[in-house]
Design a protein that fits this description.
The chain has about 750 residues and is α+β, with helices and mostly antiparallel strands. The chain contains 25 helices and eleven strands.
Length: about 750
Amino acid sequence: MATFLHRVALWAFRRRRTVVLVWVAALAAVFLGAVNASEAPEDSASLPGIESQQAFDLLDERFPGTGADGAEARVVFVAEDGQQITSPANRSAIDTLVDDVADGPQVAEATSPFDARAVSKDASTAYATITYKATADDLPEASKEALTEAVEQARDAGLTVEVGGSALETEPAQGIGEVLGILVAAVVLLITFGSLAAAGLPLLTAVLGVGISLATITALGSALGFSSTVGELAMMLGLAVGIDYSLFVVSRYREERAKGHQAQEAAALAVGTAGSAVVFAGLTVVIALLGLSVVGVPTLTKMGVGSAGAVLVGVLIALTAVPALLGFWPDAVLSRRDRKGRRTTRRGRPGRFGTKGTTPAGTARTPWGVRWARFVTRRPVAVLLLTVAGLGALAVPSLNLRMGMPGAESKPTTTTERRAYDALADGFGPGFNGPLTVVVDVKGADDPTAAVTAVSDRLAGTEGIVSVSPPRFNEAKDTAVVSAIPSTGPTSEQTQNLVRTIRDERPAIESATGAEFEVTGTTALNIDVGQKMQAALVPYLAVIVSLAFLLLMVVFRSILVPVKAALGFLLSVGAALGAIVTVFQEGHGAGFFGVEETGPIMSTMPIFLVGIVFGLAMDYQVFLVSRIREAHIHGEQPGQAVVTGFRHSAQVVGAAALIMMAVFGGFMTGGESMVKMVGFGLAGAVFFDAFVVRMAFVPAVLALLGKRAWWLPARLDRLLPRVDVEGEALTGRTPAPYDASGDQDRQESVSA
């Protein structure tokens, strides 16, 4: 591997104009494809294998043309203090709104609150339901404008009017996440490298990779079903790993230049060593992302495929575009002191590197990574116990994890959806915002009407049900829909238990009535999704950990190092999940992070967090431990190898982690609670993994294991392919370090 990548980097360095032109041409080609592509599809709501989805499919089959997934608007009316919604003036304003909206385009049905018994007991609140034939994403602007104008007229009549549902759903406030992440990354890179060019090169290549990935996803969106959500995740991951991968190559290049190597050979050595780590780190991320397909949710599968493509682009750019750009400006990425030292050396006077480009003994300050590694290797037991105990304590709240899908209750109070939600809860009770839709199939019943009535009566008698609506039959009279209102909110644990109770009692009801029924609706759908995600978590973990274990065993020629990597990952993910539960579910510190309403954790969050963080955690594992193993292979004792590995990689790994945290944390500036949760979870997981697990847990375990850390059975050693991540094959074939004249470097900096 190292030898092959060494040749790739030499070719890219020498043919730098060709390489850069190819990448620019690729960007232009996919950009043209994106411009001419069809509009991206909406996120698929299809979730095979769950009851709620089966009920939705039955509704589409038995109620053709009604659009079970069509947009809906629930217009909520609240009378002024001391008045009633049923007063002649208020009633007239409401009837006018319903009549005006009913004549609008794409309207399937507009139901007045006075016809549907949708008035609260104290007559202070009422609501009208507007259903559309088109989905929320396909709803024409004319329909939205007609509804908005009607709402404004009702407000002018003196009513408080708010609109819930999907028809007029407001877009969340856009934060400055991407810009903030790039700015913080630039500052971290500048501090780390001490050079504007060195800081700018990883940013430039990352933006190039993200541009190619996003344009490709857009161009293929219609053919492969990639929605805008796929592009958002690909952008977040592509930006983070793109910066990091280029950062590691540039850092190794500067290190090789400091040893006195010519620019061309330094670039080849950087890609042959750090580039090998980039390849295998990228593969672990790709494994984790493609592993999302085992969950069985089409949307997650597409998100994984799109993001994996963005990671692969980042890897290819780090291996080819970075050495090509280094060929144009071989000295620009060096720090000012290093450039000054090289100029002094070329004039024949000892510079910062001496006559051979090396730092004189005793003149350099001991790096913090070395001091920390020495501290850990001297006290491995204490550090290991503190690390495990601390992360374990942070993970404890995750045992109380409740999964669901936050709805309008999690939106800011500045949105009309949240105000409509609160008004309905005040007027009709907390469960009114989460009705259960019961689809009754009476094809096999002798008396369909009596069977539906019996089902409705059994539902009404269930503890936790406040009311049951009259059944609505289809034209064939073989299917009916009933709406049951719980006494508790849609995200409460009591409502989840209620849905389970209804389903548990179903066999007895179906046996007595001859009718079959299924429970669906948003509340039941969220419960089913949560159960599906929870059931898929263990198989998903097993798949990605097994594949990554094999990959890491090949990379490090060890059994115990991959085991340590998996255990460390579980500690960091557990701590991150515990932090999410503490803030977003239990509400501790929620105000500080701008979370207005706590509740269950987004159902896809644990799987999402596990997949992405596993890949990113293995990045740090490969980069850090490969340098430790490299030192060990070259003859150093295990403890000293840990110190040497930290000398070369601790600062860069820390900078990479800070950049990751900045990119992910920047997404917390948006207004959407779910986006805040994703940004918080990923940033926290990176912090725990990079600064606690990799900087404390890993060196402590390696110090305790000693040479046993690198043990591999002889038979397995013969069977496993040798990939040479450390670049051992390059030793002995590398040209001698550059001498004092520097003429060749000057030629390389201006030649083609």
